Fold this sequence. Notes:
The complex is a heterodimer.
Chain A: H1 5-16, H2 22-34, H3 36-54, H4 62-75
Helix pairs in contact in A: 1-2, 1-3, 2-3
Chain B: H1 2-14, H2 25-44, H3 47-63, H4 74-96, H5 128-148, H6 151-162, H7 167-174, H8 178-200
Amino acid sequence: MMISCEKAATICNKAQYREATFFEILKLKFHVLICKTCAKFSKQNTAFTSLCEKANLRSLSEQDKLKMKQELNKGH
Amino acid sequence: MRIVSVNSVTFNQHQKSMAIHKLQPDTWVDNYGDYLFNFAVGRVSDSEIAKDLVSETFLAGLKSAKNYKGEAAERTWLIAILKRKVIDYYRKINSKKGKAEVRVNYSSPSNPEGDWLEERVADPYSMLENSAMENEELGLAIQECIAKLPKKQSMVFTMKTIQGISTEDICNELGINPSNLWVMIHRARTALMGCLNQNWF
């Protein structure tokens, strides 16, 4: 039942994108109970996710960027 | 890229003493594209218009590259151009609108409360404006940190977190496997948390 810290971190990251399975989350919770380092990471990681949500981040798509680069090159 | 070398030569001739900042238009889109885009979206709140403004900013930057004195950092200089573009944009849409009637009234005529200025001041208990500003700052801070990541990490992180593309699609598009993706996500997130740590946690 005990998983490695590395595995715990991966599950924690997946959980940030709601892609961890129920069983994985169970394993993570169990690990976090014992491992203080992972508990801290998990907490910070979750806080980071909510910061990202709060910030209302936007980004240009790769196509848009490509188009801009081409325009810039034309301008050269 | 010819212009870069030409630029840096003229730049060096002019300012041998303080050659700190140099323009590198090739890297603009990757390094500052999203940052400028977030800034623009905050001002015009329409992503299509914001995109055009960013695009125009880059072209204007290229055109006036010879005026760049190297005093400000590249990004600051581009933001200054973008600000002008935003102002120009508002001027343009204002001139299009009917100029005939400009009515300045503090409240609607049907409002029995009258025109007292005191009734129109911002609600001191409202935190809305503040938090909107704070969130914009936060967004720019995150973009700044993302720009510092290695290209591949920033790409994976942006696709996953900001664009919300599924793991499977990202893997197909970039030709990586899921465990690769999660390693990159982990590195990106750890680096970003470290970068933001001083100010935001």
